[in-house]
Amino acid sequence: MLKEIRADFRAIRERDPAARGFLERLLCYAGFHALVMHRIAHWVHSTLRLRFIARLLSQFARFWTGLEIHPGATIGGGCFIDHGFGVVIGETTVVGKNVTLFQGVTLGGTGEETGKRHPTLEEGVVVGANACVLGNITVGRFSRIGAGSVAVIDVPPESTVVGVPGRIVTHQGTRVHGATLDHGNLPDPIKNALQGLHEEIKLAEAEIHRHYNFLADMRECKLREVSHAERRVSVEELKKKSEEKRANRRSFKAALQQPGISLIAECKRSSPSAGVIVPHYYPEEIARSYERGGARALSVLTDRCHFHGGLEDMITVREATGLPVLRKDFLLNEYHIYQSAAHGADCVLLIVRFLKGSELADLYALVGELGMDALVEVHNEAELEEALKIDPEIVGINNRNLELLTTDLATTDNLRRKIPDGKVVVSESGIRKHDDVKRLLDLGVDAILVGEHLLKQPDREAAARELLGGGSGS
After folding, report:
1. Please, which residues bridge with residue 377 across strands?
2. In terms of residue numbers, what domain contains 20?
């Protein structure tokens, strides 16, 4: 007990710059007097088991000092109670070494629970003026509770709590070295929140900027891709092979016009947003499982730039199944279209946003000449108006917002109403459950294109069936 009292006395000089001589510290600090009386009362309470006498001593200390400390509380050495009027410390409170408390602090309980019902303050904790620490919680080493705050949850070490209820503001690796009287110099939660929001906005702007550049980067990549490909295989060779493949074309459009809603199931190894989706990628096995699960057509990512695909994946999938296959890629010029036809594609993707000027109309016309179908993809009303100028037979509505990278089936709801009758309408992205499929069917959608959701399932055949409600055409 004497050891703790000496430590308490030293703490006055160490932590209060206003402390003067020995007699002043001995006679003029009510917090120190309360601690001395408490240590005597605690010894009577815990060692002699004279609980009434201990409470009587505690009550006397309360009238003398203005602090109420239950004799059952355990307080480590080096505690400093500065301007301590109104401090209340409950019965089962545990206070570690070198803790600092200011006036009006309450270390209390939160109800009528029994057992340990008051807080534990570990070494070096500082509790600001009029703050409350309530319930059987732990405030970690060298943490600070801001003035007027109310802490009701555990506080990690080396942290700061501010506000009502208390919010934890961590000091990123910065240790709060011992006790300090500078308890007003605490982080401003509103300022921190605004700074955090500012950082989030900067990150979002960077992501949007990166995404806006994505299509420009992709165009450059595709131009390089065509340049390299032309050195190996000329356009004339591709034209010849395209004619040879014409007789074996499978009608993509007819597959989507069957009764009910048709599933176009996608094969891809990875994507820029999701990363690697299928580490061990065997597209032929995935395609067969889709076919067994009720898919009526297949989509294969062949882009190498960002999706790590290839034309060989499309060839493999087409040979493994009897379903028509869409080459899903960022097709840019005539070489790409001849290349697709020469490698057996039944349908190609034409992305309105990716193409400029007359590219869309020119490529769509060439696709028809080569006996393939084209899925013309739009993301918004302006793109739909541009697409309808070429009178496409198949219109794909991509539910992904390319700026925010989010998906919303309301995109299909909005654009479907603006597509003339007689078009085959495909809804793409954000389709994860049978209720989504029923919703799209009610909107008059003919087909859905689903990739990531199915690819992530352990049993893709069963997942396809479940998505369709038990079978193809549901």
Report:
1. 351, 396
2. 2-186
Active site residue 428: yes
Residues 215 and 339 in one domain: yes
Other CB atoms closer than 10 Å to residue 29's CB: what's the count? 23
Cα separation values, 355 from 6, 149, 378, 416, Å: 82, 58, 11, 22
Taking the C-alpha atoms of residue 370 and residue 345, their distance in angstroms, rounded to an integer, is: 10
Whether 266 is catalytic is: yes
Instruction: Confirm whether 369 is a catalytic residue.
Output: no
Q: How many domains does the chain have?
A: 2
Q: Could you say which of 328, 340, 399, 461 is catalytic?
A: 328
Write the pLDDT tens digit of every residue in 383-411: 999 999 999 999 999 998 766 668 899 99
Catalytic residue among 58, 159, 398, 472: 398
Same domain? For 250 and 382 the reply is yes
Choosing from 4, 68, 123, 377, the catalytic residue is: 377
Whether the pTM exceeds 0.85: the reply is no
For the residues 444-473, what does the mean pLDDT come to? 90
Name the catalytic one among 98, 262, 268, 340.
268
Domain boundary among 155, 186, 217: 186
**Distance, CA of 113 to CA of 124 (rounded, Å):** 28
Question: What digits encode the pLDDT tens for the residues 193-213?
Answer: 677 777 777 776 666 555 556
Q: Is 385 a catalytic residue?
A: no
Same domain, 180 and 269: no
429 included as an active-site residue: yes
pLDDT in tens, 72-86: 999 999 999 988 789
| CATH number of domain containing 117 | 2.160.10.10
